[in-house]
Amino acid sequence: MSPSSVSQVYSSGNSKGANQSRKTAALAVESGKIPPLLGANLAELTEWVQQQGQPAYRGKQLYQWIYERGARSISDISVFSKQWRETVAKIPIGRSTIHWRSVAPDSTVKYLLKLADGQIIETVGIPTEKRLTVCVSAQVGCAMGCDFCATGKGGFKRNLEVNEIVDQVLTVQQDFGRRVSHIVFMGMGEPLLNFDNVVAAVKCLNQDVGIGQRNITVSTVGIRNRITQLAEHQLQITLAVSLHASNQRLREELIPSARPYPLGELVAECREYVRSTGRRLSFEYVLLANVNDLPEHAAELATQLRGFQCHVNLIPYNPIQEAEYQRPTPNRINNFVAVLKEKKIAVSVRYSRGLEADAACGQLRASEVEK
Q1: pLDDT for residue 153
Q2: How confident is residue 312, by pLDDT bands cut at 50, 70 and 90?
């Protein structure tokens, strides 16, 4: 159920309505259809508290306790009367619990979060002196099947709801005791296969949590027509498209799900996205030793991307137990960069943080859940 349906599930007004509200809430809890409050905006929460027979200002209090103070249950909200808290105690805010926490020497923290249904997801807090970035998951598992990815090896379970996405950011913010400044949708799953919830979560993180859209990056392998659909929302986010190959044949070897969506069509859709939104687009390219890291691959990639506003992020591979790919040497990386620069392609190298903490997406979940 969407956050906007909260007020529809719990409707009351007078004492008779309040009794009916409790019965409706109890039935919703039993059926598993009770919607969480996290993800609802100020207007929706205000409407809900009024339908509970509470004054409108309680909506703002509820909103502040959820988004600013990180309340995990209505019972935590001490400004509400004890009687009303008991009445609506079973209505979930929609927070997860920390199942596992792994800290790297560089202070990167990777979390395993347990959701209401017992599923486990990963999220990562990446601190620097001036910023705190959260790498969030969009799905439980992933259906894309990238050959070098630990998450893909674990299969797909389900999409994450809006509250389960937003919760990851609030969890990291609370654990670090400082405000999150940047968000990257580069965790478990393919964001554009959970399109509606991801777009709703971006808007909630922007409007309710207070993170600028320009500080939010959504990463995708590329789903036909979804990039065009995203452009229609005219968000100010950064779109990052994971290529990982310079030609269709190699891309199909690394990303089996890319077979029905040729590289040429994907790049053409990306060009239209830039034209429509006026936003520069990033391309992610994981460098795999002796697979896609040769100078000829760099030259071929430059040919694919020539002529529009884009940037290439090269990511030296983090080896995983489930695959035999290796990290390229520094010399190979530098040569790849040199070719792209010579071809006038904007490029940078992104070295992953938290290598000692099972940094590659899906590794920590795989290692801990299987124990």
Answers
A1: 66
A2: very high
Q: What would the 3-class secondary structure string for the chain be?
A: CCHHHHHHHCCCCCHHHHHHHHHHHHHHHHHCCCCCCECECHHHHHHHHHHCCCCCHHHHHHHHHHHCCCCCCHHHCCCCCHHHHHHCCCCCCCCCEEEEEEECCCCCEEEEEECCCCCEEEEEEEECCCCEEEECCCEEECCCCCCCCHHHHCCEEEECCHHHHHHHHHHHHHHHCCCCCEEEECCCCCHHHHHHHHHHHHHHHHHCCCCCHHHEEEEECCCCCHHHHHHHCCCCCEEEEECCCCCHHHHHHHCHHHCCCCHHHHHHHHHHHHHHHCCCEEEEEEECCCCCCCHHHHHHHHHHHCCCCEEEEEEECCCCCCCCCCCCCHHHHHHHHHHHHHCCCCEEECCCCCHHHCCCCCHHHHHHHCC
Is residue 341 pLDDT above 50, yes or no?
yes
Q: Provide the annotated active-site residues.
A: 122, 361
Give the pLDDT confidence score for residue 73 in this predicted structure. 95
Residue 115 is encoded by which pair of tokens?
Answer: 């959701």
